[in-house]
Structure formats: C-alpha cells, structure tokens
Amino acid sequence: MLPKFKRKSFSFRAFEYAQKVIDGRIDASWQVRAQCQRSLALFDRPDIAYDEARVDHFCEFGQALPHVIGPLAGECFCFEPWQLFLFANIFGFIVKATGLRLHREVFALLPRGSAKSTVAAIIGNYMAFCEGEGGAQVLSGATSMDQAMHVFEPARQMALQTPAMCEALGLEVNARSIYQISSGSSFKPVIAKTKDGGLPWCAIADELHQALDGTQLQAFRTGMGKRRGSDPLLLIISTAGVNLAGICRSEQLYFESVLNGSVRDDAKFALIYTIDLGTDDWKDLKVWKKANPNYGVSVDETHLKGEYEKALQSPAAQADALTKYLNVWCNTAAGWLNQADWSRAAQPSLEIPPGVEVSIGVDMSTKTDLTAITVGWTMPDGRHAFVSYLFVPSGALERNRNSTAYADWIASGHLIQTEGTASDHAAVRDKLKELLKTYRVQVIHYDEWEANTIMQELAADGANVVAFSLKAPIIGPAMDDFEADLQNRLIVHPDNPCLNWQAQNISVQPQGKFKRPSKPTGQDHLRIDGMVTVILAHAGLRVAAPEPLDLTLEWFD
C-alpha cells in the first residue's frame, strides 16, 4: 500500500506521477507504465523499505544547485515529477535485510533535450560527496572525452557556481576532476578505450548508443563488484541510435525483459521514454509529447514541431527524428519494410511440421557476414510461414560491432555459432541435407555467391536447386510480392530477434524501374542475409523458378 506522503512532498509528487501514468492520465510508453506499476508494487513487499528522508536529502541538495546551461542559467533547479520518480527509486527503496539500495543499475532512455546530462551531473555530485562513502569514485564515461565531459562539465560548473557548497563539503574543483580532500572522493570523466573501470561508487555511461562495444560497461560492472558490502550505482543514460546490434540496444532489451516480467531482477530500474511501436503512428504529433517527458519545459514545443515537420518531408530527417526525439531504434536509411507489419506477423510458437511441401532460400557468406537458410511453407489457411537458420563463425564475434548481440542470440538459440574465422560451409551443407530429409523440398533458391559448390553437390543428390539472381529486375518483383503479402497479413515468422534485426536493417536500392535489397548507406556492419533468404524462399512458394529476363538497357529506362 502506498504510504500517505505529505502532499506536494518530493515523494508524493514522484508517486503521484506514477499513479497518473498507470491510470492513463499521463500518456506514456508501455515501458514507463510497466516501471510505474513495478515501483508501486514495491510498497507491498515486506522485504523492501522506503527511506523518504534519504530522498528528501537528495532532492533538497539537487534543488540548491543552479542551472548552468540555457535561459535558466543561475536559477536553482525545480524538479519535474518524472525526475522525482527517477530519484525516488534510486535513493528511496532499500533492502531491509542489508540496508542497501534496491536498484543498483538504472537505464534511462531519454530523448534529446530532456536534460539527461544535467540530471546525471546532479546524481554524480551527490553520490561523490554527500553519501558519506569513503573514497567514492564517480566516473562519467563515454566513447570520447568530449562526450564524457557532457556530464562532468555541468557537474563542475555547478560546483564552481556554488562556492558555499564547495566550502561546506571541502571540494577542490579542477579542469577534469572534482576532489573531496576529507574523504578522498572524486568525480572524473573517463573514456571507453580502457578496460580499467576503477572502483566506481557511481559509474555514469553517457550516450551508450555511441559505444562500439561493451568494454567500458563491463569494466564499470567489474569495478563496482569489488565494492563488497556497499551499494554502488551504474547509471546508463542515452537516446536511441542506429546500431541495433550494439551494446546499448542489447542493454535496453534486457531491461525490457525485466519490465515485461520475463526476467526478475530487482537490481534493475528502467525509464524508457518512447512511442509504442505497432499502435502509435510517429506521424501523429500527439505521440511526440508522449515520448518527451520534458515537453514544454526543456523541450521547446515550437522546436519539436519543426523537427516533426522536417521528418515528414525528408527520409534522412525522419531517421534522425525517430532516434533522437522518439527513441525509436532505426538505421539511417529509409527502411524497406513497415516494422509494425513485421511485428504483427510474429508467432513465437511457429514450427513447420515435418513432411510438408516447402521451399528453401540460401545465402552463403565468407567471413564476417551471416550465412542464412530459410524454410518457407504455405499453411492450410493460405498464410506463408518462414523459419530461418542463421550461422555466424566464431571469428566474427571478436572483430565487429555486432559481437554483443551475436553472443546474446547464440545463448538464446537464435543464432548458430560455427568454428573458425570463416563461414563453415560444411555445417550449412549438413543442415540443408537434414532439411531435405525432413521436408518435401520443391525448390532451393540460392544466391550464387559462394554457394555453387554446395548446390552442385545437392543437385547431384537429386535436389531441385535454382540460382536466383539478386539483380534488380529479378529480385525487385520478388520483393514487391513479399511486401504485399506482409501488408495483407499473409506472412508469419517465429519472432527470431536476429532476423527481426535484419528486417529493420534491410533497405532498398533503386535501379531503374526496379529495386534490390541493400544495407543502409555507410553501415556495413549491419546484416540483411537472413531477410534475403526469406525473399528467396517466398519466391519459391509462388513459382518453381524465376523466368529468365532479357537484361537490356530498357529495364533501366
């Protein structure tokens, strides 16, 4: 049961906000609604206590600090309800048995202009110098020193502009450090190049979507783990980005699994402000307010409307707007498939029964690309089902930006790891022979790149193998057919996250009257191989083989 906080107190306002979100009086994403429900439920747990005095202490400290950026510079802070909800969860909930904070890792996905760096700076100053932790190390980490300074510099300016605080706490303020002589505590910016995360009392990972890998985050976690018997805090703050296989997206997916109840992890707390994909239309200006908790405060209404109008007119501006103002992960090119349609097509329990007629699509690779096999089946109700088998060589886990996501997908069984530094063609051949025994395979459509040797062997065994050109006049109509069936809800897939990632990656390269699948421009680390095989398998359900076409210049008029 929610305690009877004094009206308009910090805690009252924090949990009044949560109740309004749950009641629908404040529109918010499913992630924010889930966290509000989760937080209110903590008051009914006998093993958890709420320390209102600790929350008050933090908020009073924070509101005594000045704004250091923008038109309010010099004025003291006045926290918004959503910010109070964040602070109340970080500093209020305590495990009774230990007296330590419940939430030790916080993931805050906040749109541009939401004062996330300022919020992190206040938390950093407080945890460094006001919690009584001897030798407290607060680190602001990012991919570059310039980015790391985005949190540290506001914290430094707050100290410089509050000499009474510096005198009372005994702070020494330098260009790249704030130091407390009496306790040996400090606040410093650090970059992600080092695997040494120190022994942080509070580690702030700023704009994690820019991180090339999880090196710094792992170093922070390792260092925090050495502070036994205490309760350090990891604070991840970011907007969404374009690397859907990167560490930030991977962290978000884990925190979301906590929010949806599939994983229980009391140490995690998440505030993910975005729109609800599948139900919200980003072209509706109303949902932009939903994704921006500081709308009308630090997020200017006129500016946001201007970004909205630019996004309506330009595909390039659309991608930037979706990631930075709506926290929707997407690549920088205009994607081919409607992701709401693709999400609706998911059927996690999908299996293709043995013995049925199927078609197969195959796309081989060399080293860093994925190799993919997709089985297509026309179900009794007329829908087309697709199950993909995706392979990655061990060597690819060590040298690319997708390694974190690859490791997660391997662990969950959605990606098959093979030995060596290059694609294991023997493993692919064996899988294809297994599928030929399991199903009545009508045709295997394959991209000729790297696949001819295996296909000749399968053909010798009696398989109907047909090379399917990825040139625009041939693959283009097949893409049109697949897109139409997806829009008409005639496509079903088992919600494989690795394939979902590729469905978001796949873009269109126009060539004359036709098009072909492509990766987003300038993002060679993204993969689309699995989706190419889905298109090939889908084409196999419609015709036994593509009709040969006269590739003369008239096709490109």
UniProtKB/TrEMBL annotation:
Pfam families: TerL_ATPase, TerL_nuclease
All copies of domain Terminase large subunit-like endonuclease, residue ranges: 263-537
GO terms of molecular function: endonuclease activity
Residue span, Terminase large subunit-like ATPase domain: 81-256
InterPro entries in alphabetical order: P-loop_NTPase (IPR027417), TerL_ATPase (IPR046461), TerL_nuclease (IPR046462), Terminase_largesu-like (IPR005021)
Domain of life: Bacteria
PANTHER family found in the cross-reference section: PROTEIN YMFN, PTHR41287
The name this protein goes by in its record: Phage terminase-like protein, large subunit, contains N-terminal HTH domain
Species classification: Bacteria, Pseudomonadati, Pseudomonadota, Alphaproteobacteria, Sphingomonadales
